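Subject: sequence -> structure tokens, single chain

Hey, anyone have a minute? Need the predicted structure for the following. Not urgent.
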Amino acid sequence: MRTWIRLPLLCALLAFSGCGAVSKSECQTGDWYDIGVRDGANGYGEERFLANAKACAKHGITADRERWLDGRMHGLERYCTARSGFDAGARNSSYAGVCQQHGEEDFLHGFNLGRDLANARGRLAHWNGEIHEIQDKLDRDDRWHKQQESGDPKAGDKASDDDRLTSAQRVELGIRMGVAIVRREEAEREVADLEARGREL
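Reply:
Had a minute. Here:
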């Protein structure tokens, strides 16, 4: 098990940064069981109740902790599954350590697999960006040469002398392009494999 995942307080704080507490209308409705179900299904720790209670106190409304805890317990049954963990990991969401009594091993199996998918997608995006950057440099050099051959500096897309590449630079870019294409293909295969494994959860 990865030790950084077992830092519930830190992760809870990170989780809170993404979403606000209950709204005024939710405070007035007072359906604390449903609010607890929703918070549990989203993987929030018990600290979430304090944020909810504080939000409602601003409107002179008292939160029902017992009803919220009952609802959150049922919400955690939805959240603490391998599939839910996979989805959370793939979104790069944080984990607040809430599944220790609700099948944490299955959740973390999915969560770590989802994190691997998020990382693979990041690598794929990197190599796509690398290929786009290299191709753009080569295209600008091509435009410069066409412009010089035409004798008209306004011919086609305007290119400046800064766009010109030496033969050595073009060779270097060609090598980088080849490496990037291979790495992109590897990332594509990894993403496809992890997505397939996630569907099996």
